[in-house]
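User: For my dataset I need records formatted as: sequence, then structure tokens, nothing else. Please produce one.
Assistant:
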Amino acid sequence: MFSCRVNELHELRLLKISDAEELFALTNVNRDYLRQWLPWLDSIHAINDTRSFIRSTIWQFDDNRGFVAAICYDRDIVGTIGFNWIEWQNRIGYIGYWLASSHQGKGIMTSSCRMLVDYAFDTLKLNRLVIACAAENHRSRAIPIRLGFTHEGTARDAEWLYNRFVDHEIYALLDRDRSNYTSDMVVR
């Protein structure tokens, strides 16, 4: 089971089926904002869609292919973070995340990513982490920069986003290049 306590108010934990209603409501409230950057919103129409998504993340975790964790702040789910997939042969983890607009600007996502980086290198023994952000999503791009990731380039027309292609900025961090930051991570 994956769970990391960032501080007394902030925790990362695996999604569970009982989170479906809360996660669907959060997605719905943030739908217009998230639609600027994420391509999956049109597939989430009802709580059952969110329930199916959570089931798929549980299977992904059970199959050791990655995972999605709830970002909890003051006991409420405020977003998700995880490994969209893990390429075990090359020890590469591909990180994805989103945060409710009402909780941005508080350091929650940077702290969440820092915990995931520590977990990836220290526990999973991955060698390389990758974050791909839409080129115009400056808030998302600021996260890997803050954490010392290297900008490796632009993947042109990397994703079809509803009615247009968007470029992705690619950031990577190798275990040997990781910054010497301290972490208060407690993994259970």
